Amino acid sequence: MKRRKFIAGAGLSILGMNRLFSQEPAAPEIITKKRAQIINTKVLVAGGGPAGIGAAIGAAKAGADTFLIENQGFFGGTAAFSVGMCMNQMRPNEKPRGFVHELLLQKLQNYGNQAVRLSTHQFFVNVEYLKAAVLDALDEAGCKYLVHTKAVDAITRGNKVTGVIISTKSGLVEIRADAVVDCTGDADIAFFSGAPTLKEEGSLSAQTLLLDISNVQNYSNKDMAGVVKNAKSKYPLIPDSWMLIKVSNCHHYYINHSGTRDLGTFDVTDPFKFSKAECLSRRQVFQMTESMREFGSGDLKNCEIVGASTQIGIRESRRIEGSYILSEDDALKGSRFDDVIAWRSGWLDIGFKRTEQMRIHQVPYRAIIPLKIDGLLAAGRCISASHVGAAAGKSMGNCFATGHAAGIAAAMSSRTRKMPRELNVKDIQEALKKDGVDLNVGGETQSPTMSM
């Protein structure tokens, strides 16, 4: 090469290198998805509220190696983080409902009078005793469990769910299972797996952050007279009404109120709307307390916040779509089904918007199996139901019942190597009957004093 051409080429190369390094190169984005370990089980139950507890105990009692996961640091769902709200429809008409309901009651009663008080159908519980009693029930059933774990994805092979990915402090963990029961309340596992889901975004029921107040020795409804009317301009987040109810066997009162009803419609499956609902509710709690102190009468003027729920209570969000969708008509006429696996009692209650007497009605097996996706069942408030149909079945005793059935079906699916939709429903019904569940209930009008 001639010297002139070499120098010219070298100059161009140096010029190019200067241009190359004059700007810092963009580093490639790296997303580390570290899998800490893989856990294998026969039945996996995602969500440790009433439905999840029922499913885990039902599956374990049926002989399946069962694993229960929960996002909170304790089991019990709304019953445990609600700071005192009673567990409705646990003993409708004051009669035992089945093995899982009675096992929990037994474990509560083992702790004495401070733990639980029975009413017409409710368990009025002290939540700290409840959290321990649930652990006792799970241990007796032989169920394994983890708290502080959040399901973040479903593992699928074709159209079958084969497990769930959870987030832990050690990273992502895979839990592989023969059958999975979605008790997340929001149908998270079904949604992650691609199963069809239902959601009425414009008419979702309100969320509520329950609160406890103390330093109230004598209270009557008259003490609340004029509070909302006089306080609304100063405390705009307060709801239009609320009442105080005594927490079981103690001097605290809890308040279960209309929450976000007047603040907008919040779809908690949207992380931004979920966050907004939660944060508005935190401010609402202190405004409610201050309005009672400033504008209430009697002992309300001295009330103090004891605490509030660890998160807002969610009445309605996403649900699975099954081959049968429970409807308003089913609740009002008391429908019965050949493939019954549970029944629902109480009131048709759309979060402080509509409350109506309904009939006890049955839940068909078709309503806890999602369309298109195998290896998966649902229980609790995310079973297949319309907006109004969902409002008719969200009481905790009803969630325990559908969980119990789903857990038995999951154990049977694992043992027989059949998909849940392929099982003989009569076998599930027989197992439920052996666990003390009366599947002939349905069509009755529950006494108003036994349903609220």
Protein traits:
32% helix; 7-stranded mixed sheet; 2 domains; 4-stranded antiparallel sheet; 452 residues; FAD/NAD(P)-binding domain
**Number of helical elements:** 13
Task: Report the principal-axis shape.
Answer: globular
At the first level of CATH, the class of the largest domain is Alpha Beta
Percent of residues in beta strands = 15-25%
Unreliable segments of 5+ consecutive residues: 1-21
**Major sheet attributes:** 7 strands, mixed
CATH homologous superfamily title of the largest domain: FAD/NAD(P)-binding domain
Q: Helix/strand/pairing class, anyone?
A: alpha+beta
CATH architectural name of the largest domain: 3-Layer(bba) Sandwich
Q: Domains counted in the coordinates: how many?
A: 2
Gap between N and C termini, in Å? Answer: 97 Å
Q: Helix proportion of residues, in percent? A: 25-40%
Q: Whole-number average pLDDT?
A: 92
The count of β-strands is 21
